Amino acid sequence: MIEFREVSKRHGDTLVLDRVSLRIASGETVVVCGPSGSGKSTLLRTINRLEPINSGSILLEGQDIHGPSLGLDALRARVGFVFQGFNLFPHLTALQNCMLAPMHVLGLAPDAARARAMELLARMGLADRAAAWPAQLSGGQQQRVAIARALAMQPAVLLLDEPTSALDPEMVSEVLLVIRDLAHQGMTLVCVTHELGFAREVADRVVLIDAGRVVEVAPAASFFDHPAEERTRQFLAKLRSPFAQPTALEPAALHAKIS
Question: For the chain, which end, N or C, has fewer CB atoms within 10 Å of the first or last residue's CB respectively?
Answer without folding.
Answer: C
